[in-house]
Design a protein that fits this description.
By secondary structure, this protein is α+β, with helices and mostly antiparallel strands. Helices cover 50% and strands 24% of the residues. It has 9 helices and 8 strands. It is globular and about 55 Å long.
């Protein structure tokens, strides 16, 4: 678990350095959680109570709309992940998180995160900066859906994680891109 905590500290220090005291407070509250391929990490219809740091694996974020499912995001090794709207608003979510591979995480509850914010300016700053980064990431995804074609979206996905095609099915990638598997095969054939 110490290696896992070191990974998180390195990631968070990229935003702003945390004092040893702030880090100790955090490290005594987190839990290590493992998920098997296919496990539902957060189910649709429930309030999301946890935020995770993904140590290994791939997790897909699924939007549920009128009995249809849409893959809206992949969380990859080194990402923070949660069902943001539900986690912040404390309302049932219309999205779910599902492990596409075996996944290892470090988990912090909403209540624990609020406690960190209340006792530490450093943690408040980390919260603001990670929220800003998350917002920018999602704004880029929205713009890609509006303005980039499937080939460009595929290229950006591979730039973010070149080994993704080795970890998950092409069907999952096609669903994320909003294209058929046949169309994805044509895109891959042109590369």
């Amino acid at each position: 678990m110490m290696d896992a905590l070191h990974s998180i500290r390195s990631y968070l220090n990229g935003f702003t350095p945390l004092s040893d005291e702030d880090w100790t407070t955090f490290s005594t509250q987190v839990a290590y959680k493992s998920f098997k391929k296919g496990d539902i990490i957060h189910p649709c219809g429930e309030v999301c109570c946890n935020i995770y740091f993904l140590l290994s694996g791939v997790v897909k974020h699924i939007a549920h709309q009128q009995s249809k499912q849409f893959t809206i995001w992949f969380s990859l090794q080194g990402d923070l992940m949660t069902e943001v709207k539900s986690f912040i608003s404390r309302t049932p979510s219309s999205n779910s998180l599902v492990a596409l591979t075996d996944a290892q995480t470090i988990c912090l509850t909403h209540a624990q995160l609020e406690t960190l914010y209340n006792v530490s300016k450093g943690w408040e700053r980390i919260g603001r900066l990670t929220a800003e980064a998350y917002l920018l990431q999602h704004m880029e995804r929205i713009q890609d859906l509006q303005f980039a074609n499937a080939t460009e979206r595929y290229q950006k996905l591979l730039e973010r994680n070149p080994h993704l095609v080795e970890q998950i099915s092409l069907g999952e990638i096609a669903a994320y891109l909003g294209v058929s598997q046949e169309h994805l095969s044509r895109i891959r054939g042109k590369r």
